[in-house]
Amino acid sequence: xxxxxxxxxWGMRGVVIFVFVFALAFFGVQFFTKTGIFYVPGVVYYxxxxxxxxxxxxxEIFTDEVELDKDxxxxxxxxxxxxxxxNGEYLYQVMVPVTDFYNLDDNIDVSEPEFLFADAYVADVNxxxxxxSELDFKQKLLSINNNYYLDNFDTGAVYRIVSxxxxxxxxxxxxxxxxxxxxxxxxxxxxxxxxxxxxxxxxRGMNKKLYQVGDANYFAEKIGGFLSSFDLTHTSNESSFxxxxxxxxxxxxxRFVATLTAIGLDIVELTGNHNQDCGDESALETIDTYIDNxxxxxxxxxxxxxxxxxxxxxxxxxxxxMLAFNQSTGGATxxxxxxxxxxxxxxxxxxxxxxxxxxxxxxVDIQYYECSAYVSEVxxxxxxxxxxxxxxxxxxxxHLIDLGADVVVGTSxxxxxxxxxxxxxxxxxxxxxxxxxxxxxxxxxRSLILxxxxxxxxxxxxxxxxxxxxxxxxxxxxxxxxxxxFIERLASERP
Length: 495
Fold this sequence. Notes:
Distance between the termini: 127 Å
CATH topology of the largest domain: Purple Acid Phosphatase, chain A, domain 2
Radius of gyration: 33 Å
Helix content: 25-40%
Number of helices: 13
Strand content: 25-35%
C-alpha cells in the first residue's frame, strides 16, 4: 500500500531547506567578506625600521579606540634624493648635516643615507644631523655629494619617507594621519635668497677698459649669471654716473648701468664717500637712474631725510629692515643735497628698536674707516683683522649687535676682512672690492659675497663666497682651493 505524504510536511521541509540555504548564503557571504559574526577588524603592522619616535607618534594615532576595516602596514625609509611620493607616502622629515660655524669643511660624500647616521662616520667628519627646522645661521650647513640643500631642496639632505599601505588608504588612513604627517618644507618658492656684495666703483681704470672693450656687460660676464640668480642682489656703489667720467676720477661712464643690470642688481647702497666727486647734479641723476631701473636705494639719497630712510624688504614671508650708515669717511649729506646717510647713535638705536618691535630681521651696513695697508704685489694680512683700521672697529660693530642688529656688514673695506659670531648676531667686518680697478695689490682684487638664505622670517644660513679679478677687470668666483685657503686665513684673524 502506498503511503501518502502530507502536504503540510512537505511545506515544512521546504521552509527548512530555504532557511538552510539562506543561512548558508548569508553566513557564507559574511565569512568570505569578513563581516557580521566573521568580521575581523583591520590590524596595524609596524615595520621594524620605524624609529622609536615615529612609533610613539603612530601609536598615539592608532589607539585601541580606532577601528579599521582593512589592515595597514607602516614603514619608513631614508633617501638621498627626494622621490616622487606615491599615494600613501609622506615626507616626514628632512635631515641636514651641520658643523661648527668656523669649520672649513663644506661637503660630505656618501653612497648610502644610513652612513650619515653612523657614529664613527659622524665623529670622523665632525658634524651632526639635525632636522631642517633646527637650522640657523650659527651653524654651518654642509653639502652632501656636492649638493647644497638650500640651492637644490630635492638633494643635499636625507629625506625620511613614511609609507602607509592599505586597501582603503584614502577612506580610512589619510583622514587620521594627514594632519600629523603633512608638513611644509623650505622650497625655491619659500626661501628668500639675498646676495650682499662689497665695494663697487666702476671708475678710473675701468673707464679706460670700457673705452677699449666698448661693452659694459664685459665686466659682469663671469659673475653676472651667478649674482642675478638670487632673489635680491646688493652692492655698495661708490661712483656716480657722469658725463665727466675719465680714466682718472671716481665717476662712472653712463654705459656702466649695463654692468649693474647684468648682475641683476636690486639694492644699491650709497654710503660711499665718492658719489659727489662729479658734483651734485651727477649724483642726483644717478639716483634717478637707479629708480628708473627698479633698483631700491639704502644708505643715501637726494636729501638727508631720504638718505636716513630704512629699506624695508617684505618677500616670501620674511620681513627685513636694512639700515646703512656712513661713519667718518666723508660724503655724507647733512641737508637737502645728495649724499650718504651719516651715522648718529640715537637714530641707529631707534631704527633698530622699531624694526625689531615689528619682528623684522635687521641688517646694518657700515661705511667705516678704511684700512689702507696696501703692499704692492705682496700678500699682506694687515687688513684681515678688523682693528687694523682707524678707530675701534670691533667695538663699534659689536655695539650694533648689542643694540639688536642681527647682521652687521662693513662695506667700506677695499680688502676683505674677518668675520665672527657675536652675541645673538653675526658680523662681517669688510667685504672688499666686487668691481674696481685696484689690480696692483692682491688684497684689493678680492671680495666676499654673502649669500643669505631666509625662510619664514628666519636667517637660515649665510654662505661666504670669495671673488677675484685681475688686470682684465672681470670679476669671478674664486676656485675651490683658493676660496678655502682665503676663508681660512680670514677666519684665523677673528677677534
